[in-house]
Design goal:
- The protein has 221 residues and is α/β, with parallel strands linked by helices.
- The protein contains 7 helices and 7 strands, in the order E-E-H-E-H-H-E-H-E-H-E-E-H-H.
- Bound molecules: magnesium ion (MG) and zinc ion.
Length: 221
């Protein structure tokens, strides 16, 4: 699976695995104009960089997981995707929200005519990108969260064992349009910034983001 990630950190025991905030890209980070691959078409959803920095301060590793079937369809190339991802990473880093990883699925089961036209285990709703990130980045999926604008984003998180699954609107202003089952959906907000401003959701995020006591070591007294 293609992954645009930092080198994996040294392997540690389970107790210091980090929780991740998984972010879908189109509709969550940038306004989804459809098959965005050029910097000039990439408009950040209002408040997303500040909200991501907020998540980073809470202790979340920020990981982008994005379906990019435009590559299988021949609309743009892997190189186009990576160039835009590199620029996007720099913007996040400058905002105090460095991305721990950017994972994308270039495949589609029945679009295009090349080697990327196939069933794969990375296209959401499959959990492959999240599971790969967990291995590469030493993540604790059971304390992680996902923010997406489609039910398939939330389904991928559910399949990966990510308990907090937030459905967002597509343009940063309106509530989500997709009607995802309640059992799949922890909360619904217009955007990541709105989600982070919600006290109840913040409380849940803070519980996940704070490292628990190391297992097997009781507090003194
Ligand atoms: Mg999306
Ligand atoms: Zn794939």
């Amino acid at each position: 699976m293609p992954a645009d990630t930092l080198p994996p950190p040294p392997q540690h025991g389970g107790s210091d695995r980090r929780p991740a905030a998984f972010l879908d890209r189109d509709g969550v980070i940038n306004i989804d104009h459809g098959y965005v691959y050029r910097q000039e078409d990439f408009s950040f959803v209002p408040g997303v960089l500040d909200a991501a920095a907020d998540l980073a301060r809470m202790g979340y590793a920020l990981v982008v997981v994005t379906n990019q079937s435009g590559i299988a369809r021949g609309y743009y190339t892997e190189g186009d995707f990576h160039a835009l991802a590199q620029w996007m990473r720099a913007r996040f880093a400058a905002a105090g929200a460095p991305l721990a990883g950017v994972y994308h699925c270039p495949h589609h089961p029945d679009a295009g005519d090349g080697a990327l036209r196939r069933d794969c285990d990375c296209r959401k709703p499959a959990p492959g990108m999240l599971l790969a990130a967990a291995r590469d980045l030493n993540l604790d999926l059971s304390r992680s969260a996902l923010f997406g604008d489609k039910c398939d984003d939330l389904r991928a998180a559910q399949a990966a064992g990510v308990p907090l699954r937030v459905l967002l609107g597509k343009d940063g202003a309106a509530m989500p349009q997709d009607a995802c089952p309640d059992a799949l959906t922890s909360a619904r907000h217009p955007s990541l910034a709105y989600a982070l401003a919600d006290p109840a959701l913040r409380a849940r995020l803070l519980r996940g983001g704070v490292s628990p006591l190391p297992r097997g070591r009781a507090p003194a007294g």
